[in-house]
Amino acid sequence: MAMEFDSGSLADTEQFLNRNYTTMQIGNAAEAPVHSHITRDVLGTVSLDRLKLGFDMSYDADPLGKICLCGVESGSVEENYLDGGTDTFHPGEIGILTPPDLPYSGIIHRARYTITMFDPAELTRVAAPEDPDADPVTLIGHRPVSAAAGQRLITIIGHVRRMAAGYDGDAPPLVAATATQYLAASVLAAFPNTAAAEEATGDGDDAHPDTVRRAIAYMESHVRQDISVGEIAAAAYVTVRALQLAFRRHLDTTPMAYLRRMRLRGAHEQLGAGSPDTGATVTGIAGEWGFGHPGRFAALYRQHYGQAPGVTLDT
Hints:
Layout: E1 3-7, H1 10-20, E2 24-28, E3 36-43, E4 46-53, E5 56-61, E6 67-81, E7 85-89, E8 94-98, E9 104-118, H2 121-127, H3 147-165, H4 173-190, H5 194-197, H6 203-206, H7 209-221, H8 229-235, H9 240-251, H10 255-273, H11 282-288, H12 294-305, H13 309-314
Antiparallel strand pairs: 1-3, 2-5, 3-4, 4-9, 5-9, 6-7, 6-8, 6-9
Helix pairs in contact: 2-4, 3-4, 7-9, 10-11
Protein name: AraC-like DNA-binding protein
Organism: Nocardia transvalensis
GO molecular function: DNA-binding transcription factor activity; sequence-specific DNA binding
């Protein structure tokens, strides 16, 4: 756990929120005793907070400059959207608390909830090739496209939080980058956005073997770097949609699943060349190749190589 705050002071709570979120003014809407408990885990540039407020906290805040996901576990969060009136999130619901570039205000009613934040640029990075002339991908709704989509996103955020909490210090860069892309892609799948609204053109014609070959060549030369599906598509000179169609049509998989297998093979080779005597560990090697959850790495490794990764390292 990277940070923990506990206080019975409204002034101290406001100071903490100003220091760790954005400039804001808060109040005690019902004049109840104040109690605030906040924890934060960090994975790369993603912050994953759990908050418990024992009073009705009103807030009036400046723009955050980040994607801000709010998942309610108990109580409720009432948000005043500048472009859409007031909406209230109840237990089991998740939503966008505020657009990155707009101020926000509302009341948190004695709630236990989560706040997950990351750079809005990550949405463009996973949705489209990096084109300096392209419009940034943005979210165009503050509620998920369906209740099921919201529940899937809540589950994914929980997984990313557990991954972050599993490291005493910073997570390996590739683990953090992969988790950030995973989260951003999951947000795009859950919320209406400009990328989903755009109609793809020529994707079927571009889904041919040459596309796959160019993509694989790029992945092989960047296998240990933080690359997105958008960057792979750009290297293959096609859209993300065309790239996905090509991999499904010719290899019956997805580009990122193929990249994951390449990294698994790299980890396998490093395990075979390593030794516990030199300080090599399964967890360390897995992390270097972007596998942040040792248990899932071990299961995937056993599925492909028929034995535990520790056996390979010890042999």
